[in-house]
Design brief:
The chain contains six helices and no strands. The chain has about 130 residues and is mainly α. The relative contact order is 0.11. Residues about 1-15 have low confidence and may be disordered.
């Protein structure tokens, strides 16, 4: 938790991954058959994020620059802009679900990966917003 946060708040800003107490000692959380596919997907998201960051940040090396610039043009905070992008992706998913299955599943996986990444970016931007000016 950061020092500028209300200690009575149920929402904490945690710089490390938050694992709910109920899952910390759960046998399933320690089961490699359960964890391995999720960790593989997280690794895939990491690679996707790094590749997209190189393409979108204009070569500046500034993290999340494209979202901050677009948010500024839209006149909203960056975290609100990315949240709007999540809603847009969800709308796209409703259209993908109407496609024939092979095409639908491929499109669905791609959109879900993008949505998961944008969700994580939104969390990062909210935490930056709570810490103060960018």
């Amino acid at each position: 938790m950061t020092t500028d946060q209300n200690p009575d708040s149920p929402y904490t800003i945690n710089q490390t991954a938050h694992i709910p107490p109920s899952a910390q000692h759960s046998p399933s959380a320690q089961d490699p058959a359960f964890v391995s596919p999720v960790l593989t997907l997280l690794e895939r998201l990491k690679v996707l994020h790094l590749n997209k960051s190189r393409a979108y940040n204009g070569g500046t090396g500034a993290p999340l620059r494209n979202y901050k610039v677009a948010a500024g043009k839209a006149g909203v905070e960056p975290w609100r802009y990315t949240l709007m992008r999540v809603f847009e992706k969800q709308e796209r998913i409703t259209h993908i679900l109407r496609l024939p299955e092979p095409e639908m599943l491929a499109g669905l996986v791609e959109e879900l990966q993008d949505t998961a990444l944008i969700d994580l970016i939104t969390i990062a931007l909210i935490e930056q917003h709570q810490r103060g000016p960018f």
